[in-house]
């Protein structure tokens, strides 16, 4: 079924329409300086196609959250971990929900990381949920910059990779990218080059006009026309728009963003004395008096040169008041909640510890919780205790067992503590699959290998009762598991190691 999206009118007054099915296969690039009407064009396109196709809007300024009330889009606030955003994206594809990813209030680097996690979640969804979907990215130069800026190289790499996947490989997965940028020169070329449809608005710089003319197949002397376009006017070209460049005027929209075109307003009718009173009198939420600025010291030129040439002296850091007990308790509670949320993720057991630690730091940053005391070593130890289910244990016996576990490799410590907890409580030894999961593996044979490794090094003793059930004893403690109906034979463990 062919669906024509009404964008507005052409120069001759005819309807300017876009073939929605063709757009899903060919993608769209929108370019225009600030104030040229880019966001207005995106809003018109998304409004006219909302009832026909699933949509996801990457919104760095929170301008498209109004779609929630008018068209039922779900607003996804980005103050979440990358893993959580990826899972939300997978459920969005599964249930075919139209959403707005609201990145408002986050700095550029965090916006890039959140958008990348969200786009990767949409891209990596299972094949059976590859339904057609429009992905609109406003201010795309933020997420696919042509050159490195003030953001870190890692954030730029993952964000650019996600945008490249969207524009280069998204079509087979049902994802159609619509990217809007202020300047083509700021947008990565490998991202812009994958679009087959173009809507070029007003621009003034020669390099941007030349690139726009090249994309539309115009001669260089015709590039000057982009300088004369009025706001809301664009030149359209592409299989979903027109086979030849045509000027179009974007129609009206039903929703409004938080930021719009500035308009003139009448100045307040107030006398000079009344205005001075408002300016120089502190308001109710301001301090009554501001501290006086320090007076400038008159220094002779010779003395000033001597001060500059003298070796620098390290100034002692100003002492800071230690946090109160209440603040420490709140900080600890917030870190506990973040840690519990990470552990509750069913995929956390199979993710590398450094990746979990990065998610932990990102979540702390979003929640504005200092994480300086929780370094990688502390995080590993706490993760091992949590996976073993013994976090918070304070007995002397447990401290001895925990100290003994430090002689094992870090990724095995949680498995050892899990077995020790079962032995202390007189429970059966965990099954091979549970041991493998605690280690971060899906293979039950890995669980048997772990018992082999620990038995051969004297940390545990593995025995078999008359029924062939497995019994594990923790060396040096006397703790012993009940007979388990799991594997009765542990490959690789010699009889001597089982009797140890």
TrEMBL record:
Any GO molecular function: helicase activity
Keyword tags: ATP-binding, Helicase, Hydrolase, Nucleotide-binding
Signal peptide: none
InterPro entries (UniProt xref): ATPase_Atu1862_pred, HerA-like, HerA_central, P-loop_NTPase
Any Pfam family matching the protein: DUF87
Domain Helicase HerA central span(s) in chain numbering: 8-76
Descriptive protein name: Helicase HerA domain-containing protein
Organism from which the protein derives: Aureimonas populi
Lineage per the UniProt record: Bacteria, Pseudomonadati, Pseudomonadota, Alphaproteobacteria, Hyphomicrobiales
């Amino acid at each position: 079924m062919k669906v024509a999206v009404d964008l507005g009118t052409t120069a001759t007054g005819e309807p300017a329409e876009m073939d929605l099915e063709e757009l899903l296969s060919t993608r769209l690039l929108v370019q225009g300086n600030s104030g040229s009407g880019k966001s207005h064009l995106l809003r018109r396109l998304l409004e006219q196609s909302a009832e026909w196709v699933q949509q996801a809007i990457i919104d760095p300024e929170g301008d498209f959250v109004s779609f929630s009330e008018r068209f039922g889009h779900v607003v996804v606030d980005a103050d979440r971990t990358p893993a959580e955003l990826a899972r939300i994206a997978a459920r969005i594809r599964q249930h075919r929900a139209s959403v707005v990813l609201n990145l408002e209030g986050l700095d550029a680097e965090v916006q890039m990381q959140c958008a990348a996690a969200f786009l990767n979640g949409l891209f990596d969804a299972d094949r059976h949920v590859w339904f057609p979907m429009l992905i609109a990215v406003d201010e795309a130069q933020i997420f696919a910059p042509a050159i490195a800026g003030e953001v870190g190289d890692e954030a730029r790499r993952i964000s650019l990779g996600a945008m490249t996947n969207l524009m280069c490989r998204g079509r087979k997965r049902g994802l159609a990218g619509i990217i809007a940028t202020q300047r083509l020169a700021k947008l990565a070329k490998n991202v812009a080059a994958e679009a087959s449809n173009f809507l070029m608005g007003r621009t003034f710089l020669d390099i941007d006009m030349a690139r726009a003319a090249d994309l539309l197949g115009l001669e260089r002397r015709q590039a000057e026309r982009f300088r004369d376009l009025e706001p809301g006017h664009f030149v359209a070209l592409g299989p979903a728009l027109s086979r030849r460049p045509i000027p179009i005027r974007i129609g009206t929209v039903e929703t409004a963003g938080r930021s719009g075109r500035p308009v003139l307003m009448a100045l307040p009718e107030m006398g000079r004395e009344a205005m001075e009173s408002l300016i120089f009198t502190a308001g109710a939420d301001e301090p009554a008096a501001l501290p006086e600025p320090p007076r400038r010291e008159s220094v002779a030129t010779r003395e000033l040169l001597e001060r500059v040439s003298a070796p620098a002296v390290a100034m002692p850091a100003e002492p800071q008041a230690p946090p109160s007990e209440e603040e420490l308790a709140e900080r600890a509670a917030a870190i506990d909640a973040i840690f519990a949320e990470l552990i509750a993720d069913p995929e956390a057991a199979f993710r590398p510890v450094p990746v979990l630690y990065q998610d932990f730091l990102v979540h702390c940053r979003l929640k504005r919780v200092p994480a300086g005391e929780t370094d990688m070593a502390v995080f590993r130890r706490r993760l091992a205790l949590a996976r073993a289910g013994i976090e918070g244990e304070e007995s002397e016996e447990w401290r001895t067992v925990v100290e003994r576990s430090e002689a094992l490799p870090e990724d095995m410590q949680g498995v050892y503590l899990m077995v020790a907890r079962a032995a202390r409580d007189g429970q059966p030894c965990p099954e091979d699959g549970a041991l493998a999961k605690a280690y971060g593996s899906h293979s039950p044979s890995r669980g048997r290998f772990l018992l082999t490794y620990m038995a051969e090094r004297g940390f545990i003793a593995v025995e078999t009762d008359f029924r062939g059930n497995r019994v594990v004893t923790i060396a040096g403690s006397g703790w012993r598991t009940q007979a388990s109906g799991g594997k009765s034979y542990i490959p690789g463990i010699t009889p001597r190691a089982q009797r140890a």
